[in-house]
C-alpha cells in the first residue's frame, strides 16, 4: 500500500496539514505539532444516520458502541484498558454524516493506537452476545436522552416534523422499534460495507515523525481490503410551503418551543451567513432575540440559536424557554416581528462586527488542542469534502457584509419554511394540550 501526498495547507501560523491517499482508498491527514508529547489519533468514517434505511435506523450509532466491544484479537473492554494503561483516553461520536473514533495517547504509544484502530476496522466480532449487550446499552441511552428528556424529545420531534423524505428526519440514535429489531445479519452487512479503508479518513495530530506515522499506517492497514460502497442518493426534501406545528404535554413548569427553518447545508455559500445570523439573534444579552424576549418583554428565561453543520440542507434552529404563564403564541409572534425587522432594516455595523468576532473566536477556540484540531479537520474533510475549507472559514466570516447577512435572513427565515414543536405544561388531571400539524 503506497501513500501519495494529495493536498496540504497551513493550519494557523506554525502548522501544516497534509493529506495523503493510499492505494486502498484510505486517506490520512497529518499535522505534526511538537508543542506537547501527545498524539490524537482519529478515524472518520463517511457513514452516519443519513446512510441508513427506514426500518433500520440507529445502525451507525450502534456501531459506536460495538466498536469498543470485542475483536478477534481483543476481549470486550480490552481496547479501553490498553489505551488507559498508557495514560490516554478514547471516545467516539456519531452524527448524521459521519462516525468518528478518537484515541489520545502519549506520543511514544502512537503504534498502539494505529494497531488497535486498524484491528477494529476489519476484525470486529459481531455475534449475538456482543450485539445484544450493546443493543441493551443503546436502548437505555435512548430512554435517558430522548424519552425521559424534554429537550432531547423536542429536537427529535422537530426533525421528524420538518423532514418528510430526507434521512435527516430520523434521529441518529434511531427509533426504539428499529433498535430492537436490527438483525445480526443486517448489522454484519452494514459493517462490511462501511467500515473499510476506502470509506475512512485518519487524522493524526501531535508530536510524531510524519514518515514513521505513514509507515505504521501502511503496516497495519495495508492488508485491509476496500469495500463496495453504494451511496444511497436519499430523496431530496421537497420545498416546504406552509408552517408545520405540533405541541405536547410535558412535565415542565413553563412552555418550551423549538423552531426549525429550512436552511442551507454547510457546503452552501449561504451557510456562513446563517451562522452569523445565529450570533446576531442569540449571542449574548445584547442580541436581538435575547434582548427582546428575555429583557424587554419578559416572555422567556433563555433563548438559543444555531445552524446545523450538515452536508445537505439543514435546519436553522431557534430554541426558547418561555416564562411561567406565558402563551407560546406571544413568543412566536415576537419572533416573527424580530425576524421581519431584521430582513427589512438589515444588520447594524456594530452587531455584525460582534457576530463576526464571536463566530471567529469560536472557530479558533475549537483548534486549541490536538483533539480539537483533529475533530475540525475530520469534520470538514468528511462533511464538506475537503479539510482545506476549514482554513478559509475565518476569511469567509470576515468577508460577508451586512447586506449578505440580511439577504440570507429574508431568504430563509420565513414562517412558510418553519416547523415548530412545543412542550406545554401538563394540565390538571394529565390532559394533553393537543397536537396540530399544518
CATH architecture assignment of the largest domain: 2-Layer Sandwich
Mean pLDDT: 95
Which fold name is given in CATH as the topology of the largest domain?
Cytochrome Bc1 Complex, Chain A, domain 1
Number of helices: 15
Any low-confidence stretches, pLDDT <50, length ≥5? 431-438
**SS-derived structural category:** alpha+beta
Q: What shape does the CA trace take?
A: globular
Estimate nothing, just give the exact number of structural domains. Answer: 2
* CATH class membership of the largest domain: Alpha Beta
Tally of strands: 12
Fourth CATH level, the homologous superfamily of the largest domain: Metalloenzyme, LuxS/M16 peptidase-like
Percentage of residues in DSSP E strands: 15-25%
Radius of gyration: 23 Å
Provide the helix percentage: 40-55%
Strand and helix order: EEEEHHEEHHHHHEHEEHHEEHHHHHE
End-to-end gap: 56 Å
Largest sheet: 7 strands, mixed
Strand order of the largest sheet: 1-2-3-7-4-6-5
